[in-house]
Write a structure and sequence with these properties.
The chain is an alpha/beta fold. The chain folds into 3 domains: about 230 residues, Rossmann fold, CATH 3.40.50; about 90 residues, Ubiquitin-like (UB roll); about 70 residues, NADH-ubiquinone oxidoreductase 51kDa subunit, iron-sulphur binding domain (de novo design (two linked rop proteins)), CATH 1.20.1440. About 40% of the residues lie in helices and about 10% in strands. The chain is built from 16 helices and 11 strands. The chain has a 5-stranded mixed sheet, with helices on one face. The chain has a 4-stranded parallel sheet with strand order 4-3-2-5, with helices on both faces. It has a two-stranded antiparallel sheet with strand order 6-7. Helix 7 links the parallel strand 3 and strand 4. Helix 13 runs antiparallel to helix 14, helix 13 packs antiparallel against helix 16 and helix 14 runs antiparallel to helix 15. The structure holds flavin mononucleotide and iron/sulfur cluster. Iron/sulfur cluster binds next to helix 14 and helix 16.
Length: about 425
């Protein structure tokens, strides 16, 4: 375990202050002193399929938003055919008020790099791209330095300690995005990586079969890959001793919410930041304990609990358990990025909804009519309602447009439209 278990980051307010004020990027040497790269050494001595089995047994679910089981995704790759196979690491992180991957990139870049290398070994991928949000200038520089350190210490490149992967020396490159939210959607990210406009692709084929440059590609979030490191070091049972299991008697194919998770809390709380706790922690605990409560004079009214795409928890849902089942239990889209924006008593929910609609109408790539047209309508109508010029009929129309944007499967190419209607 490279860092103190089960905390990947230790809890850090953002920007770090108080007892965390002098937190610095962990260099290669310091990371190794803290037992870093031991999981990679362990992986190097293993059969690739056995690494995948451990990740599968841990039931590690993707931390990028959709919660798809990582080990299962890895096993979708077709057999080797001698050609290149890619890993794309999703650090686009453009969901408003989501900043957990930024903090990992800044403070623990070698944890991420170790997770990347383990994934490459497990899935026999020879080339990895770290796709980082264009606005993360400072973090990009930090990560490029960390990549250089990893090359200098034989993690990647010719004579890599991993040996040839898929008959090629493994390489890791950094690719910057150019500021489009949609490029976080995995197939838009691939288009952008290929130098094209970031338009989501129709699936199937899924990226594991035909991804970057038409070749098999695994796409994982930064936090998902970081979590692979402690999973390998401590085993599946250790990981499953944290979080929320499946209900008693439920068959094994019902997904559970095991393990620790990063939660990013912003809004009028005393100590906003990224905190690690077990899945299932309540929103109230995150606000009251980790963030030391609301700032004086502000009361909790509601929260975008997992990024604005996931919907809203209301005042009565302050004690909602933050796990992958939150959507089913509290009528929203899901846990998303688990980065909650806290809304205080004196902020208008109409204004919040209008602001979200503005964001989505701007960020829609425009390929699908319900998303391109619906988003704009929602924004215009909410602007009118906020100005006091709405009618009761507007409310029905709002709901009608919102439900036509995402509730019917197959109406749009990607999930942006679905996320766009939840605020309404
Ligand atoms: C509009 C949209 C934006 C997204 N943005 C991100 C993002 O910034 N980072 C991310 O990891 N996943 C994002 N996703 C989810 C990815 O498509 C994909 O599910 C994820 O990167 C897979 O990694 P994981 O399985 O490790 O979670 C987004 C999805 C949609 C529909
Ligand atoms: S749903 Fe919206 S963002 Fe996604 S592909 Fe369609 S138009 Fe583009």
């Amino acid at each position: 375990m490279p860092l103190e278990s089960p905390i990947l980051l230790k809890n850090i307010p953002t920007p770090p202050w108080g007892e965390f004020a002098d937190r610095k990027t962990l260099s290669y040497d310091d990371y190794v002193k803290a037992d870093g790269y031991k999981s990679l050494d362990q992986a190097i001595g293993m059969e690739p399929k056995d690494i995948v089995e451990i990740v599968k047994a841990a039931e590690l679910r993707g931390r990028g938003g959709a919660g798809f089981p990582a080990g299962m995704k890895w096993s979708f790759l077709p057999p080797q055919d001698g050609g290149q196979r890619f890993l794309a690491i999703n650090c686009d992180e453009s969901e408003p008020a989501t900043f957990k991957d930024q903090v990992l990139t800044e403070f623990d870049p070698h944890l991420i790099i170790e997770g990347i290398a383990i994934c490459m070994k497990a899935c026999q991928l020879d080339t990895a791209y770290y796709y980082i949000r264009g606005e993360y200038h400072h973090h990009r520089v930090i990560f490029e330095n960390a990549i250089a350190e990893a090359y200098a210490n034989g993690v990647f490149g010719e004579n890599s300690r991993m040996g040839k992967v898929n008959e090629r020396w493994p390489n890791l490159y950094l690719q910057r995005g150019a500021g489009a939210y949609i490029c976080g959607e995995e197939t838009a990210l691939l288009e952008s990586l290929e130098g094209k406009r970031g338009w989501p692709r129709i699936k199937p084929p899924f990226p594991a079969v035909a991804g970057a440059f038409g070749r098999p590609t695994i796409i994982n979030n930064v936090e998902t890959l970081s979590m692979v490191v402690p999973v390998l070091a401590n085993g599946a049972d250790w990981f499953k001793s944290m979080g929320v299991g499946r209900p008693e008697g439920a068959p094994p194919n019902v997904p559970a919410s095991f393990g620790p998770k990063l939660f990013g809390i912003s809004g009028p709380v005393q100590r906003p930041g990224v905190y690690e706790d077990n899945l299932g922690v309540t929103l109230k605990t995150l606000v009251e304990d980790h963030c030391k409560g609301m700032i004086p004079g502000k009361q909790f009214k509601a929260a975008f609990h997992g990024g604005i795409s996931m919907g809203v928890l209301d005042t009565t849902e302050y004690e909602a358990e933050m796990d992958f089942d939150i959507g089913k239990k509290y009528n929203n889209l899901g846990l998303g990025t688990a980065c909650a924006t806290i809304i205080p008593h004196d902020v208008s929910m109409v204004a919040m909804a209008r602001n979200c609609a503005r964001f989505y109408s701007h960020e829609s790539c425009g390929q699908c009519t319900p998303c391109r047209e619906g988003g704009n309508w929602l924004y215009k109508m909410l602007t009118r309602i906020e100005a006091g010029d709405g009618t009761m009929k507007d409310l029905d129309l709002l709901l009608e447009i919102a439900s036509s944007m995402g509730s019917m499967p197959g109406t749009t190419i990607c999930g942006l439209a679905d996320g766009a209607n939840w605020a309404v």
